[in-house]
Amino acid sequence: MSQLSNRPLSDTLELTSLGDVGERRVVIVGHKSPDGDCIGSALGLRSYLLARGADEVSILVVGRMPDNLRWLPGAETVHQLSAQSDLEPIRQILAQARLLLLVDFNHLGRIGNPLEGLVAEIVGKPEVRSVMIDHHPEPDMGLVNEMYSDTSACATGFLIAELLGGGASRELELHGGADMATCLLAATYTDTGLLRHGQITPTLFRTIAHLLEVGARHEEIVLRIFKSDKLSRQRLLGYIINERTTYDLDLGVAVFTLRQEDFDRFGIEPGDTEGLVNVPLDVAGIRAVAFLREQRDPDEPVKISLRSQGNLPVNEVASAIFGGGGHLNAAGAEYQGTLSDALALVWEGLRELVHRYPDC
Length: 360
What we know:
Elements lengths: L1 E3 L4 H4 L12 E5 L6 H16 L4 E7 L16 E3 L6 H8 L3 E5 L11 H8 L6 E6 L11 E5 L5 H10 L5 H22 L9 H13 L3 H9 L4 H14 E4 L4 E6 L1 H7 L21 E6 L8 E7 L6 H8 L2 E2 L3 E6 L3 H18 L4
Parallel strand pairs: 2-3, 2-5, 3-4, 5-6, 6-7, 9-10
Antiparallel strand pairs: 1-7, 8-9, 10-11, 11-13, 12-13
Helix pairs in contact: 2-5, 2-6, 5-6, 5-7, 6-7, 6-8
C-alpha cells in the first residue's frame, strides 16, 4: 500500500524556505536498534541534504549501530543514544531543527527511549517541517506534514533512491553522488539480504543500476557488510544451528533462541545477531522461522524476529499474539516475560498460522 505525498520528495527536502544560511538545520531520526536500512537511508539523506546546502544534518538513534556499518560515509557523525546518554545536547539539536525526517519506521513508539519523548515534543510544532519516509505497514498518517510510505518497497533506502532518481529526475546525479548512492545501496542490500528476499522487482534492478551509475560502491558494500564476520560470530552461528534450533520439517518451521549466558560465551555485541534469523530458511521445506533472544539486561523484554517465504504472513503472529508488526515475510515483536513463555506462544502461533495457510 502506498501513501505518497503529492509533492516530489526533492521539493519537500528543499531547504531555502527553512531560513537563511546558518538556520537550515535538519534532524534525521531512525528507529531503535538501528539496522542497515535505517543507517544507510539516514546517511544517504544526510549526504544529499548537505549537497543541497543544509548547514547541519544530525542523525539520532537509540542503540548502537552494527560494527559492519561504521565504514559508511558519515557514520562517525551518528548520535547513538542510551539510557545513560546526556540528553541536553540532543534537546538543543532538536530545538534548532527546521526539518525533521523520520526514517524507516511508522510510528513514534519505534524510536525508543530516551529519544521518543523528545521527538514527540517537536514533531507537531508549526515551525518544524516533519516528514516520514518508510516502507512498514500502518504508518501514523496524522503524525507528519508529508508522508512517503510504500509497503511494496523492499527497503526504505530503495524508496528514497526511487523517489529521488526515478523517471526523469536527476536528483541523484545533481545532489547525490557516490557517497549517497553507496549508502542507499547498502540500505537496500541489507534489508533484502543481497536481493534474496523481499519485493524483488524490475524497478528495483533499474534503481540499483542507477545507483551504480552515480557511483555506488557495490564491491565494497558486499565485502565490508556481508563478508566481514568476526570469528566469534561464525562460532555463534554454528552453536545456534547445532544446539539452539528446533526444526519441525512436517510443519515447515524452525525456531531458535539465544539466552543471556550466550552473550558472554560468544562475546555478542549489537549487530552480531543481524541476519541470523534468515539462515534456517535455506533448509529445504522450511517456510517460517522464529528467533527469540533475551537481552543482557534481564528487565528488558524478549525480542522476537519472524521470517517466512512465499505468502505466509508471519506479521499476523507478531501482531495477534505480541502486539508487534512488520511485513508479510519479515516481522518482529517484544514480550515482557520469560523466554520459555514466549517460546510456547511462538510455537502455538506458528502452528496455527501454517494450518490456516497450508498452500502459501
